[in-house]
Amino acid sequence: RPRVLSGIQPTAGSFHLGNYLGAVRQWVALQETHDAFYMVVDLHAITVPQDPKELRASTRLAAAQLLAAGLDPDRCTLFVQSHVPEHAQLGWVMNCLTGFGEASRMTQFKDKSAKQGAEGTTVGLFTYPVLQVADILLYQADQVPVGEDQRQHIELTRDLAERFNGRFGRTFNLPAAYILKETAKIYDLQDPAVKMSKSASSPKGIISLLDEPKTTAKKIRSAVTDTGTEIRYDPEGKPGVSNLLTIHATLTGTPVAELERRYEGQGYGALKTELAEVVTDWVTPFRERTQEYLGDPETLDSLLAKGAEKARTVAAETLATAYDKVGLLPAK
Ligand code: TYM
Questions:
Q1: How far is CA 19 from the centre of its chain?
Q2: Is pTM beyond 0.95 here?
Q3: Euclidean distance between CA atoms 49 and 52, whole angstroms
C-alpha cells in the first residue's frame, strides 16, 4: 500500500470548511486505500503564541473533530505530533540542510511574519516549513493530501529529500502533493478573492464546522456574490458564486454542471438557501459526534497514545537511519 501522511494545526478550535474540503475529506477517503498517517501538529502551533491550557484543549478538540469527520483509528494511524519526539529530532537535521535564503522564500512565512511583526516573529516560525519536511520524510510518505496553500512546503520537502539523498546516499522517498483541483482552495465567503483562513478571514467569512447551524445558515445567506443574477461556474468572473457551487457540489456529490442546470433562471437566493441546508445537514451530525468524542477524554487520549506508538516505530527507524548517514555517533 502506498503511504500518505498529513497534518492539521489544532489552533482556532473549530476546523473550517476549507480544512475539511481541502484536506480532511481526502484523508478519510485515503485511509481505505493507503497506509495512512494523520496528525495534529501541536509543535507547529507553538510557532505563534498559544495559551497553554487552550492549546491542550484544542489539541484534543482537533483529534475529536478528525474522528467525527470519519477517520477510523483501525484504518489509519492518528496521533499528536509532540508525542513522537522524532519529528523535532529530524527537524533539526533538516534545518542544517536548509539554506537561509531558501527558507526566506516560503510565502506562508512571509505572510505570517508580516502579521507578527519583526519582534513577534520567532525563529520557530521561520523554520516551520522545515519541521513539516521532517514530518513527511519520517514516514517515507508517497503522497501528502493538502490544500493548495501547502504546495510550496511539499516542494521544499522534495528538494531537501533530494539534497539529503545526494549528499549522504539514498535515504528518503520523494513525496508528491495530493491536491484535488476542485477543492484545492475554498474561498472566504466575504472576500472570495482570498482563501478561507483560520487566521486571516473575518468570522463572517469562515464556515466553522462547530458553529451553531443558525450561524452557519446566516453566513451562507450573506455570502458576497456579484451584481449579476446568473448561477454559473466561472471562478474568474464570478468567484463568490463559483465558491458556493464548489461547496455544494462536493458535499452533495452533484456535478457542478448539473447544479447550473438545476438553478437556471433562479436567483442567488435559491442557491444560498439550499446550500445553507446542505451544509447544516452535514455539520449537525459532525458537531454531535465531536461532542461525543470530547465527552470521553480518556478513550480519546488512549487512542492517541496507541496512534503515537504505531507512528513511533516507523519514525524511529527512519531517524536512526538518517542519524547514521549523517555520521552521528550512536550511543552505546
Ligand atoms: P493547516 O492546519 O493550516 O490546514 C490544514 C489543511 O487544510 C488545508 N486548507 C485549505 N484547503 C482548501 N481551502 C482552504 N481555504 C484551506 N485552508 C486550509 C491546508 O492546505 C491543510 O492541508 N502546515 C500545515 C500542517 C502540517 C502538515 C504537515 C501538512 C504540518 N506538517 C505535514 C502536511 C504534511 C498547516 O498549517 O495546515
A1: 5
A2: yes
A3: 9
